[in-house]
Specification:
By secondary structure, this protein is α+β, with helices and mostly antiparallel strands. The chain has helices spanning 2-40, 74-94, 135-143, 146-150, 167-190; strands spanning 43-55, 58-70, 102-104, 108-113, 119-132, 155-163, 197-205, 209-211, 223-224, 230-243. 14% of the residues are buried.
């Protein structure tokens, strides 16, 4: 009988202990959700944006020299393409382009075929690219190639790409401007409520869009337009500010 009473007493003690722990846990959970609910009403969420125009200071000129030969003058074809390359490099150097800026790829050879499926000769290609800060000199040759034509220098392909050497510094400055714009927008939203934006508790930057001026083209993963010498860079910042 004594053992039975002790057993029942121990059961009651365990039950009360479990009930007490459950009450404490419930209070903690309730307090956490209450805090979350309260805090969710104590901040304002905004989207800041910044845009800046700039002009590239580096140009990359991609070009390809081409020479066609028959089956019997392949050596002459190689010599001709090398001669054209030398004339081109001489012109570039005379324009103030450093030899270190000129990059030359090996000559490639492709078979040429006639209408009946017979091999008639070869097409020789040699690609070069020039990376330089002498944008005016490169543009003069690429866009107005009269001087090159006088030397019988023809290109199979020719294209210009433009870059900016201080783009990383510009990105940092633009993020600061976009964040400042986000705070200004938060203050505008809260203006009529006699509150203002306080401490920023969360932020996330969007991708950078580097586009030609007045373009509305964007990409979800970001964009870097290299076709235009003049460009615009845009970025957005999502931010949450505590309400004071």
């Amino acid at each position: 009988m004594v053992k039975e009473k002790n057993f029942q007493s121990n059961n009651y003690t365990a039950a009360f202990l479990i009930m007490g722990i459950s009450i404490v846990l419930a209070a903690l959970v309730f307090g956490f959700f209450f805090y979350q609910t309260r805090s969710s009403r104590d901040y304002v969420q905004v989207l800041g944006a910044a845009t800046q125009g700039f002009e590239s200071d580096i140009v990359k000129w991609n070009l390809t020299l081409e020479e066609s030969t028959d089956l019997h003058n392949v050596i002459d074809g190689y010599r001709n393409i090398q001669l054209k390359r030398k004339k081109l490099i001489d012109i570039l150097v005379n324009k103030g382009i450093s030899n270190d800026d000129i990059n030359i790829n090996p000559i490639s050879s492709y078979n040429r075929w006639g209408r009946e499926g017979e091999m008639t000769g070869y097409t020789l290609n040699q690609s070069l690219f020039i990376i330089s800060t002498e944008i005016e000199a490169i543009e003069t040759l690429a866009l107005n190639p009269d001087e090159l034509l006088d030397q019988e220098i023809f290109f199979q392909t020719s294209s210009l790409e433009y870059f900016y050497s201080k783009i990383d510094d510009m990105k940092k400055d633009l993020l600061e401007l976009a964040t400042r714009n986000a705070r200004e927008r938060a203050d505008m939203i809260l203006k009529e409520s006699n509150h203002k934006a306080g401490k920023m508790i969360w932020s996330q930057a969007g991708v950078f869009q580097i586009i030609e001026p007045y373009s509305t083209e964007v990409e979800s993963y970001g964009m870097y337009n290299t076709a235009s010498r003049k460009k615009e860079i845009k970025v957005t910042v999502h931010a949450n500010f505590l309400i004071e």
